[in-house]
């Protein structure tokens, strides 16, 4: 009897995500960790497959440290099993089907780097029910909540109302500034109250107190973002959140000027042929660690690197190889004497 082989020519390009994960694991997890888990499920469709943390970081526009923290988090949550080799290096990952938590606590995000923004005070203490009710009677607040609903395209939830009141009462934002805050976030395709709060806290840290100050800051950073994208050869789109976070590190935390950042981007494209934020970040982090302040400092580092490379290169003796033109005895001719003889003939 002949055996029949069944081939699937219409394989569905889809990734299965468990409802248990969505309902019970995802809400408590860091967004970057969720992204890593979903990507693992994506490449599971081609399992067994080999990849490096560096490749994964490049694909997800984050650092290898972010990937490792996410893997450890999901390992503690019981969704993956990590395998190590004899050198205690990660060598394998196994996906474990999610199980109902049964009110079990999710693991805490150990070692996670928190954004350098002030932490919001406890809203339960700072905004009592009586204070919330008082604010909701304020005509300015009533108008603000109405405008917010128009921007967000929905009726505000109690949590969203409380957040907006927090901006007003605790961060001391004016109603006009809160309105511009919402407008700014919505114009960048972000309607999540968590994102709006993140921007509000960042503005508070930068001591932004007026709409004009917010516009100037937004305009400045938008211009710088697109300058960096252009230097990396990216055009025709806005930067995504992860790219903005990396660029903010270069601009705000490292304090690099645009010419230094553009130099790193140019080197990235020349070395990799790609618009790799991770590669540019490695360059700029190295320069930060070496206290680079100007392009002159970069030139000094380049010269030192070139010198070290030349010192390491093997030195060759410059000896002339013998050939058929210099192997025989050379003859000496007196051309003046020959000329006299020719003239006397």
Automatic annotation (TrEMBL):
Indicate the segments forming the DnaB/C C-terminal domain, all copies. Answer: 147-217, 236-298
Q: Where is this region: Disordered?
A: 93-125
Q: Where is the composition biased (Basic and acidic residues)?
A: 102-115
Family indicated by similarity: Belongs to the DnaB/DnaD family.
Record-given protein name: DnaD domain protein
